Amino acid sequence: MIARLLLLRSSLVIAISLLSACVSVGDVGDVKEANKLAIACKTDEALAAVDRAAGGGGLSSYIAELQRAVILMDAGRTSEAEAALAERNKRAGASAEDAAEAEQSVQESVEELRSAREKETGHRTCP
After folding, report:
1. What 3-state DSSP class applies to 25?
2. Confidence (pLDDT) at 27
3. What is the value of pTM for the model shown?
């Protein structure tokens, strides 16, 4: 029984390692830069950084799609944010549950962005 568990554990570790090797991360630096620019209320520059990250493919592209909605929502461009999120969900073939989780993630990220801005500037929203 212990030998089987050890074999199963080894198989899982190998499978995870192989999967990790196949997943492209892309450049998440542009996503980080977009967040810094959004905190500084430079929305258009932040969106340009998100576009660069999305063009990199892999995980950074996935993150960039959600970050675009966060930046737009933070800037009060709600209809654009909703459209961007809807397009992302359609492209990903997201289920209703997945779409709801993505929307919740965007809302939480907007709050985190505003908290970071408040910490840095004393203001939660841009002028």
Report:
1. coil
2. 57
3. 0.76
